[in-house]
Amino acid sequence: MPAYGFAHLRSRRNHPDIIEYLERIQTTLDPFAGRFVIHGPPVEVIEGTWPGSMVLIEFPSLAEARSWYDSPAYRAILRLRTDHIEGDLVLIEGVGPNYDPAERARTLRAEAGRAGKSTT
User: Fold this and answer.
1) Under 8 Å between Cβ of 86 and 10
2) Is 66 exposed, middle or buried (0-12, 13-18, 19+ CB in 10 A)?
3) Burial of 114 from C-beta contacts in 10 A (0-12 / 13-18 / 19+)
4) How far does the chain reach from its first CA to its final CA, in angstroms?
5) Which of 13, 53, 82, 96 has a 20 to 30 A CA-CA distance from 88?
């Protein structure tokens, strides 16, 4: 199952450390088959607000995404970004090609039904 590193970057400054981070990040991703899917273009906000930009990196699995983030190579450059850009980063598992949102709705409906029943 693919997994993703999703970053919401709220403040971005062009600093020499950011340039260095960008020059070095791909070599930290390569051993974990990570690839950029989205890398900070302006967003078209059609609902709500979205301050900042986003980055989406795809990995073959959540294990590889975690291993990348915890790798010595990435840890060596992490502060180059975090010292200059305010934001959040999450790792999340994706859905497979046969994902059915209706099945997810059935699961949620069943869970809600169980939560509403008394056990006494």
Assistant:
1) yes
2) middle
3) exposed
4) 40
5) 96
Q: Give residues with Cβ within 8 angstroms of 80, minimum separation 6.
A: 17, 18, 20, 21, 24
The helix (run of H) or strand (run of E) holding residue 10 is strand 3-11
What pLDDT digit, counting tens, does each position of 17-57 carry? 999 999 999 999 999 999 999 998 888 999 999 999 999 99
| Closest to 54 measured CA to CA, from 24, 10, 17, 23 | 10
Tell me which H or E stretch contains 69: helix 62-70
Region at 52 (left for phi over 0; alpha for psi -120 to 50; beta for the rest): left
Task: Measure CA 59 to chain center.
Answer: 10
What the block records as the tokens of 90 is 């999450």
Total count of residues recorded for the chain: 120
Residue 93 near residue 3 (C-beta atoms within 8 A):
yes
pLDDT, one tens digit per residue, over 85-119 is 999 999 999 998 899 999 999 999 999 988 876 55
